[in-house]
Structure formats: structure tokens, C-alpha cells
Amino acid sequence: MDIDTAADATTNGASHFTLDADTFRKIHPAEYNRRFISQGVRADGRPLQRFRKANVNVGSITTANGSSMVRLGNTTVICGIKAEVTEPTPEAPRAGFLVPNLDLPALCSPQFRPGPPGELAQTISEYINQICTSTNLLNLDDLCIASGQAVWVLHADILCLNYEGNALDAALAALIAALWNVRLPKSTYDELEGTVRAAATNTIPLVLNRLPLAATFGVFDAQHLIADPTDQEEPLLSSQLAIVVDQEDNLCGILKEGSAMDRERMVECIGLARNRAQALRRLIDEALAKADAS
Amino acid sequence: MRPDKRNTNDIRVTHTALGQLHRADGSGRYQFGDSSVLCGIYGPAAIGLRDEKLDRAVIEVSFSAAHGKSTTRERLHERLLRSTFETAILSALHPRTGIRITCQTLCDDGAVLATSINATMLALMDAGIPLRSVITAVSCMVDKEGEVFLDPTALELKEAQSTHTFAFDNVSGGVVSCESTGVFTEEEYESCYDICKQGSDAIERFLRHALQKKLEKQSGLDFGKS
Amino acid sequence: MVRETEPIANNERAFVKNVILEGLRVDNRSAHDVRTVKINFGSQWGHSEVQLGKTRVAATVSCEMVRPSPAQPTEGIIQFSTEFSPMASPSIESGRLSEEEVLISRLLEKALKRSRAIDTEGLCIVAGEKVWAVRVDIRVLDHNGNVLDCACIAAVAALQHFRRPDVTVVGEEVTIHSLDERSPIPLSIFHIPICVTFAFFSNGERQVVDPSLLEEQIQEGDMTFVINIHRELCTLSKAGGIPIEGSQILHCANIAAIKAAEITELIKAANMESQTRKEKKKESKRE
Lengths: 294, 226, 287
Description:
The structure holds 3 protein chains of 3 kinds.
Chain A: E1 2-3, H1 7-10, E2 19-20, H2 21-27, H3 29-37, E3 54-58, E4 66-72, E5 75-86, E6 97-103, H4 119-134, E7 144-146, E8 150-162, H5 167-181, E9 183-190, E10 195-205, E11 213-220, E12 224-227, E13 239-245, E14 251-258, H6 263-293
Parallel strand pairs in A: 6-8
Antiparallel strand pairs in A: 1-2, 3-4, 4-5, 5-8, 7-8, 9-10, 11-12, 11-13, 13-14
Helix pairs in contact in A: 2-3, 5-6
Chain B: E1 14-18, E2 26-32, E3 35-45, E4 58-64, H1 72-88, E5 98-107, H2 112-127, E6 135-143, E7 148-150, H3 154-157, E8 160-169, E9 175-184, H4 186-219
Helix pairs in contact in B: 1-2, 2-4
Chain C: H1 10-21, E1 37-41, E2 47-52, E3 55-66, E4 77-84, H2 99-114, E5 124-126, E6 130-142, H3 147-161, E7 163-164, E8 167-170, E9 173-176, E10 185-186, E11 194-201, E12 206-209, H4 213-218, E13 221-227, E14 233-237, H5 246-286
Parallel strand pairs in C: 4-6
Antiparallel strand pairs in C: 1-2, 2-3, 3-6, 5-6, 7-10, 8-9, 11-12, 11-13, 13-14
């Protein structure tokens, strides 16, 4: 589609020239998006408060103890969980570890540079870690093999393959789906040798106390509330709000940044987040059922 | 009754100090009881060509915990601090410059994020950087019985079911930043919102008083009671 | 930020040098005056904040239980880490370890660890299994010259102020008692090494104690003595700069011993004051 640039709107009767939509988007992304959003539709065709289509797949990485792939629109993340034996800390001799880590490599979007993890990846990893610990997602004592000697450490590596915005929602969904999919081998600790013997097959599932899932919102031009922002929209938002909800509709975390937001709007978002989390949960359930059947 | 004999909606004894650092362009210290954060500000000053923005000042934040190696927790604090103050600072007035905010936790007894937001606010006022609004922050927690406690200490936080930090802006009265973790209901969230709003209004008066005292001392004038 | 340390005008440089040649200093001190030392302790154990004139350093001591190194199974671990906070000076960039930071950490390590100032064997809980690892985090908050001496005072003060939780050992089982449960235990410190830095001017003819930032930038060489109240020299550091005669070193060492004694007294007094304040607070709580 060709857009006639608003030469008449910005400059009075200056030379009239046309740009194609793609160039317009690149040189003036704020104005480009504003024209859509003021009409109640987003640049990718969604209504303002519709989330992108989600897609969940589990168990595709056979070498991992648990894995999943989640797509939100074109944002694609995979999560692989690898269990390793490690020594517990002296303070908590029975507690294992869950180490979630999000990687946003340079291959998933030109906005990320190669090298050590950037701020976005580090902060999302940290927030996911906070959700896991503060909501008591796993009983870490379940990961004990022999008290004070050996426990499981679950390395949950979440890797983004294609970044089209909203990494938190996708990463958390991928982590939860992968944790459901985890099967640990039966293992015993040999006192004499000081080693752990694990069975050849992975059979024991994890017990998850809750299923927190995130929904992210943004405010465009201080008035339009949009759900599930894309990477094009993210830098233009005046504020962002992520809400994490579990299966019993309890809140498990709220992260709000940017300009001021009133209470009514936050309450509105909580309602929308509940619906979204429910929908994502159903998708994860379906994917798990499918994986079990095959 | 709380261990330190406060009511549930009391904040701890608050201390403020402005301009303690000699080299920084502005500095502020904020204390909630034993939690203490020092903030220093440089700028608006020239920054590297690669970093500068043509239409506004770039805000850089670094936050450092009281002890130990730096972790991703500090990065999340930095991100929240930066996004909080990007909305408060009139950065369009200083294009192609940088404003560097550094927060150093001196003592951690809970509510460090709120303490650092308040310390940064003091430092920004001390540095004379043009602001859109005054932002003040306070933390609260909900215990297992569902009771809400304002400004919890590290000891109290061990019993927390959920913890919340809210930063409010004094012009619109809305939430600028919020970090909530743990498990909580919508009703609990709303009562946390209310109790923190009241707390942050009290803190705004503290900050105003601190600045007024400093200016009176500087100018020798009496600004009266506001 | 690109702001480098501001260059000093030739006139100013010459002025500072001439003033020192006349036995004076630009900040109205005499050659062997140390700037005013202010020591504050935090309300929690092991927190100190020290001002040396306009230089300001905070130190925090923390501890955790770890497995000892196999080479020294009965010794606790003491670690020093120094960080120049970006608020200390506009030229400091965060996240990059500078040479000066490493230098300060190393010198403090030499001064406090190698001189056996702190009893590391007392930090052992179960030999070969569990020991305390004590960590001293030094944060430079305001850089106005002679950060090393200030950092040393802060570290020593914080170590003296620090209390670790008490433990009970039954066989291999170790219980850590919280601070309320049992009164915490101070570190056993055998002696208190204090850093005293000299800056040399006009080919080593003149020396000043505790150089300010301006003097530091103009100095021709410097030397640091680490010395305790018993006039025992723990570490001597002279890294480069102009050559100094042996007799001058001895002269400086004598001055350093006097300064160290003065500073030790200040730290002791500040520590006493903070203890009495803590006890008063406790009493008022009981009431």
C-alpha cells in the first residue's frame, strides 16, 4: 500500500511527494504508528488490545530433560532445561537450584549486539528469577538427592530465535511449559564413592506449585492502551506494564515502567491479563497432552 | 504490633541530606531507618558521539548494592530507576548531553529500590536539573495473613507473601513505576496501592522540606511554611 | 562521559609547587598535616563511612560460610574488593576495573592479611569443611585525593566494627545463630595497620603528608607506609616516581608512625562512641 505522506498536514502546500509505507515506517516510526493507532488498529492489523497468536510446542529437544518452543506472533523462543548434579550450599543442604537465563543473541534481531548479554536480557532473566523464587514455583527441596551432598540444578536456558517484541511473555511461557515437560532420572547417592548414580531413563516429573504467565501492555501517546507490543512499538511507548497471573487468578508479579498510569487503567489491564494467561495456559496444556500422547 | 513498634501504615524514621559530595554536580542521601542510599549526579554534560541523542539528554544509571559482586538484580534496579527518571527529567531541554545517575547502597535493611528512587530525586533537586514532577517511592509487603505493612525492614520481609514498591508522581498522582513480586490478590494489590500512595505523599513533604532547608541555608532567606 | 580529569593550568601548577617549596600548602595545611578525619558507623554491624577532608569512602564487611581451600583447610578467607563508584569523579566509568582499584585492593590485602593483623584461624568452623569467608567491600564515593589512606581507615574501622553470627558445631552439623538469638562475635584483630601516604616535590626535597587531588596530580613521586601503633612497619610501597634517599625514608617513617598513632586513636574513639550509642538504643527498645 502506498501512503501519501502528509505533506499537507505538516508543511503548508510544500512540494508534494509520496513515500511507500515501508520507507515512511523507517524514517518516522512514531508518526507511522500514530496514524494506525488513532484509528483503533495497529500497524500489524490487530485491534489495540488483542494479543498476537500464540503457539506452544513441548519436548522437541530430546537431549534436554525438558524443553519447549513458544511463538507469540513472530517472536520465537525455545527453552531447554538441563539437569545436573551439584553440591548444595551449607545454609540450605536440601535445596536444589533453578537457574533461568534468557539469551537474546544478535541473530534474533538487529537491535541486539553480539557479546555479553545486554540490559534487556539480563533484566528479564532477573525478573523471571524473582517470579520463580517469590511465588515458590518449585519446592526446591524436591531437587534433593542426598542432603548436604548432592542436589539437582536445573539450568533453564531460554533462547530467542526471532525477536519481534515482548520477550518477557514468551520467555516465561516457554519456561513454564518446559518445566512441566521436565523428567528427571531416578537417582541414588553412593556414600562410599561419593558419586551419584542416575537411571538411564528420565521418569520423574516436577511438581509445580503454580503456573504464572505474563501479559505485557503498553501505552501509546499517553492514552491508547495496547496489548502485547511488537519490537516496532516498544521504543515508542510512554509506559509499559507487565502483569503475571497464575492458574487461580492470583497475581504473581507486576512490573510497571514509564510515565504515570492511573489506577483504573491498571485494574483494566489485570482483567485482560487474566484472560490472556488463561488462553496461554490452555495452549500449554494442549501441547503437553499432545507430547504425552505421542 | 511490629518489631520496631510502628503501626502498619508508618514509614521508618527518615533522614535526608543534600550536597554531601564535593565532586558530583548534585548529590542526595536518603535513609529509611537503617536502609541508606547515596546518589550522585553528573550532568548535563558532553558524552561520546556514539551515545548522544539529537533531541534529548541521555540518562545513564548505575546502581550498586551494599556488598558483594554485581548481579542481574542491580541491572533490573538500574532499568527501573532509569525508566522512572526518564519520565521526570525534562531531557528535551538538554539535547546531545548525558546525565549520569549513580546510586550506591550503603546499608540494606529492606526497601532499597524505594530508598534509591528517593535518594535520586533529592540528588536531581540538588543538581538543579529541570524536572516535570517530583517522584517519590515507598515499599510495602503483605504477610501470610493478608495484612499490609508499609516500609518493611529486612527482618519483616522474611515473612512476606508479596512485596510491592510503588513510585508515584506528584502532578498526575499516578503510578510511575511499580515492582511487585510474590503471590497476591487484586484486593491486596489495591490496598497496597492506597497505603503506598499515602506513604509517598508523606515522603514528598519530607523531600520538599529538605530542599527548602537547604535553599534557606544557601540564600539566608526564610521561605516560611509551605 | 567523556569528561577527563580536568587539566591543570601551568600557572596553577607552578603556584602549588612554589607554595610547597615555602613550606606551605594551598589548602592551608602545613606539610605534615593530615586532613580532618571523620568516621561514621552504620547502624548495622560492619558498615563504616570515612571522610578524609573531602575524600569519602564507605566500607562494608560481610561474611558467609564456605568450604576452605584445600591448601589451607583451617584458615578462614578474607577478601578485599575496591570499587570507584562513578559518583566519585566524572572521569570514572562504571563496570570497568581500573588499575587504581586493583592497586588499593592489593595493598590493603598486603597490609591487613600478610601482616597477620586479622586472625584467620579463628574463622575456621569445621576444619577442611566450613570456614567463614569475610569480604570487605570498599566503595569510593568522592575522590579528592589520597583515596588509599581513606580506604584503609574505612576498611580497618569496618573490620573492627563488624560482628559475625555465633555458631554451634555438633559433629558435622553447624547451626548459625541469628543476631537476636545470641550476641554476635567480633573478629579478633591483633594490630591495626594504618596507611600514611607522602607526596614528593622538587626532586624529593619536599614532602607532604596526605596529598589532595591537586597535589596528587602535580607530585613527582609518592610513597605509602603501612604502620601500626607499635611503630611496626607492615608494608612499604613506592611504585615509581623520583628516587628518594634512604635517610628521607626513615624520616618519613617516623612521621608516619606519629600519624598512624593519631588515626588509630580516632578510630578507637569513634568505635567506642558507636558502641555506647548502640547500647543506649537497645536499652530504649527494652523500655
